[in-house]
Write a structure and sequence with these properties.
alpha+beta; Translation Initiation Factor IF3; four-stranded mixed sheet
């Protein structure tokens, strides 16, 4: 996890709070298809397993996981750079 001051600037942010696996990953795939290579996507989640899921997703797809930020309100922000 990174500190908020290290947060990458996102070109697009999607809200997947309240959704359980696999829905945050499915929404992420759709959002990544809408942005150009090299752009940054932020995904907001509340699923307890999302951090692990996004790590695996990025390993499998070649997209870069830039940061994961757990917030005090229970939301985790995942920052991915599209390959």
């Amino acid at each position: 996890m990174t500190l908020p001051s290290d947060r990458p600037l996102a070109d697009l942010e999607i809200d997947a709070t309240g959704l359980d696996c696999p829905l945050p990953i499915l929404r992420t795939k759709k959002a990544l298809a809408r942005i150009e290579s090299g752009r940054v996507l932020a995904v907001l989640t509340t699923d307890a397993h999302a951090a692990r899921d996004f790590q695996a997703f990025c390993r499998q797809t070649g997209n870069a996981l830039l940061a994961q930020e757990a917030r005090p309100d229970g939301v985790t922000a995942h920052f991915l750079r599209r390959r």
